[in-house]
Each structure stands twice: as structure tokens, then as C-alpha cells.
Design a protein that fits this description.
With 291 residues, the protein is α/β, with parallel strands linked by helices. The protein is built from 9 helices and 14 strands. Helix 4 runs parallel beside helix 5 and helix 8 packs parallel to helix 9.
Amino acid sequence: MTDKSPFALYVRATNQVAFNVSDALGFSVEMSALAVSLFEEGPDTMQVQALYSTRKQAEQALLSLSLSSSIETMIEQLPDIDWVEKSQRGLPPVKAGRFWIYGSHDKELIPKNIKWPVEINAGLAFGTGHHGTTKGCLLELDRLLEEGFFPKKVLDLGCGAGTLAIATAKALKLNIIATDIDSDAVEVTLFNARINNVSKFIKCYKLDGVKNSKLQKNTFDLIFANILSGPLIKLSEGIVDILCPNGKVILSGILDDQSELVSRAFINCGLEIEKKSSISGWTSITGRKIK
């Protein structure tokens, strides 16, 4: 084993805690991870794996999480191989309607009948398409397009790796605003836009929420908000405010048992819920702004 071998931080917890941990390790910790992965271990349990160059970085990341002592954690050094590449190769392509989300290692395997292939590699920013939240949004986008809904102004709020913004740009060839609270996500989104040849369509900003000049001067026909239930509820009024009349929003990052709370918050702000769907315990909600 050599000094180049990365150190893996493992956290095993309930779905919501694990999802929060993966988000924090990807975005909030000063010592940036080489890669962050989230694995399902059963109906209610998930495991987070974050890779770091040194044990000290892994230990600092763990301390920053301030986890309960009842949550299982472990740090170990891994064999000396390219674990970032391995983590990417371990993620199979994802088909979501007419979208195909793949890593660079699978570029030669894109089926010929796929209309919109999107290259997204595993890394720091969440939202590669392999989690039920992002896949749920893509399936809803595909359904809306099939039904003849063609928005002219689109916002990807909490863009992560930029998967939704890039997929929409590929499908519609129109300008899209993407935002995230983390600068890493902005960099990753812009990089992914370049490798997918849609840079000219995507503007990405580091922004918190919707109460800012970049968004308040606009109204949108379609908004993606793939974040978490708490922030969604908090932002519900602001999100509906910047939707055009009859505009649609696709909400995700919602555990199945939280979907009613999120739905109610948006209904109270003037949204009509059109559809709910669930993938692996995570609900996606599509709604329309009532005139």
C-alpha cells in the first residue's frame, strides 16, 4: 500500500441522514472530497462513501458532520488504484425516457435509439442521474415534452452536477439558468455543459434561494427544484412567485413520507399538483401554477 492510496470515510445511516451527509460532504466541507458516492443498503438504510487524499482530511470531514454517536462511521485506507475512476466506472448508464445519462467510460455504448445522451461523470457535485431524485425529474421532463409542453424559460434551482439543466438544453436548445449554493457545483455544471456542447445555452450562478436580482427579474415556464423537503417548503412561496401563470415546477429530493407536507406547502402558495411519482423511496412532484 502506498502513500497515494486514498482514505475512505464511510457513514451508514437512515435514508434522510445519509442524503444530508452526502450533500454536506460534497458541498460544505472545506477539505474537498475526491469523490462522494451514495449506496442503498435496504429500504431504510444508505451508505455514504467519501474519498480523501489523507487521513487527516477524512477525519476533519467526519468531525465537521457532528453526527450522533449512534451513527456507524469508519475511516480506512484503500488499495492503491485510481478510486475516482473506479467510482465512475462503477456507475452504469441510466435511461430516463429519451435521456441517457452516462460516464465518459461508457461513451462508446450509447444506444443508437437514444435521442438525448448526457455525459455526467461521478465527482463532487450531487445529481449524476443515478439517484432516484434526479432520475425522477428526468422522467417527468420527458413526459412533459411528450405531452407537448415546451417551456421558453427554464431554471434549475440547486443544480448540483447540472444534469437537469444540460438535459433540458439538449432537448430544447434554449437558454437556461442554473443555480446552486456551492461554488463547486457551479464549476462542475459549467464543465459538464462544455463536454456536452451546450455551454452557450447555460448560465450558472452561485446563489442561495430565489430572493436575488438574478432570479427576481425573471419569470420561468419551468423550474426544477431537486433539493430537500425542508428547503423546498421554506422556498415554496418564492418558487411559485417566479413561475409564469400555468408554468410548471418539478420538485424532488423528497422522501415518500414527506411528499404530503411538501405538496401542501406548494398548494397553499397557488400550485396545483398534477402528478407524483416515486423511485426507490424518493418522490418527485410536478405542479402547475394556477392563474
